Amino acid sequence: MGVSFAAEKAEAERLRAVFAEAGAQPLDCAIMQSAETLLDLYGEDIRARAYVTHDPSRGEMMLRPDFTVPVVEMHMSDGAEPARYTYAGEVFRRQEEHPERPSEYYQVGYEVFDRGDQAKLDAEVFGLFAEVLKPVNLRPVTGDIGILTAAVAGLQTSQERRDALLRHIWRPRRFRALLDRFSGKTPVPATRAAMLAQGAPMATAGPVIGLRSEREIETRIAALRADAAQPALSRGQVELIDAVLAVRETCSFALEHLRDIAVDMPALLPALETFERRCDALSARGVDVAELDFEASYGRSSMEYYDGFAFGFVCESRPDLPPIATGGRYDALTRRLGGGQEIPAVGGVIRPGILLEVAK
């Protein structure tokens, strides 16, 4: 991208010093991370984005795809409360869809683990990033995955279908495919329909081949039959989800628009109260929410951390570049990695190489 690795490293150290001055404790994480943890979190999809290797004693490993997971693991094992951390180091991502982008680059982060006022903490992190990036002409954009999960949780369908949609919120294409199937827009594949029509498909299936046992296969068939018996998701319900996904306005107008949608989908109301409190906290920090962009779908294509507030800073004159900074709230991740414990958490990362590229 026209920036030397030495310059990128120096900028990363400068940014980490800024975050440390803001009260964050500097830390580092091993470059080699357990593949088991990441695969458990994200499934086999992570292989398409990370570099996987094998260690004779530690098993399957991955070159660090980011810092958030190891930082959460470290904090949940022995971190104090409240805590603020900063870090700077290399991460490794495969770039099959964008071969022109580097697969090894620096990342600088600021993470907050705190049980205090969550709206104020969201505003703290966003405000700090906005201040750090102020010298560069970037467009900030915000979102809230919690609003979308609330919309899905409020759908009038089976819990199994709601769970399936929630699992794929961070995979927009799969989410849409499920929505189309559950609403009857996409017919059941002919092979599946034929299988479900059989009284006892395992009786004529021949020997079991593969890792699944016969009982597991029968359980899966029973789940498919139960799903096929569910009534189709109504057109009105799908239109409400589409209306939420389509919201792209400034925060003030987005809140009004979403309140209008909530008249027909009251499950949104608690998430909208959270959104409103965050807007108030941002305003108290001097952020003009009447000019701050909000996109209901923002954050869905990132690593599957964010379950609430999400934000990014992009360079509109360079649409070929990824966001210079991204961040958000990831409370659910601390539950997954906390061994029975949890703590609210919010943070973000900056890519210093792209920041230098844009600043030139």
Automatic annotation (TrEMBL):
Keywords, in A-Z order: Glycosyltransferase, Transferase
Assembly notes: Homodimer.
All copies of domain Aminoacyl-transfer RNA synthetases class-II family profile, residue ranges: 15-305
Gene3D superfamilies to which the protein is assigned, alphabetical: Bira Bifunctional Protein, Domain 2
GO-annotated biological processes: histidyl-tRNA aminoacylation
Entry keyword ATP-binding: no
Cross-referenced Pfam families: tRNA-synt_His (PF13393)
Signal peptide as annotated in the record: none
Entries under InterPro entries matching the protein: aa-tRNA-synth_II (IPR006195), aa-tRNA-synth_II/BPL/LPL (IPR045864), HisRS-like_core (IPR041715), HisRS/HisZ (IPR004516)
Official protein name in the record: Histidine--tRNA ligase
Organism the protein comes from: Alloyangia pacifica
Taxonomic path: Bacteria, Pseudomonadati, Pseudomonadota, Alphaproteobacteria, Rhodobacterales
Lineage: superkingdom: Bacteria
PROSITE patterns, sorted: AA_TRNA_LIGASE_II
A GO term, aspect molecular function: glycosyltransferase activity
Residues annotated as binding L-histidine: 66-68, 93, 107, 111, 305-306
GO CC annotation terms, alphabetical: cytoplasm
Coiled coil: none
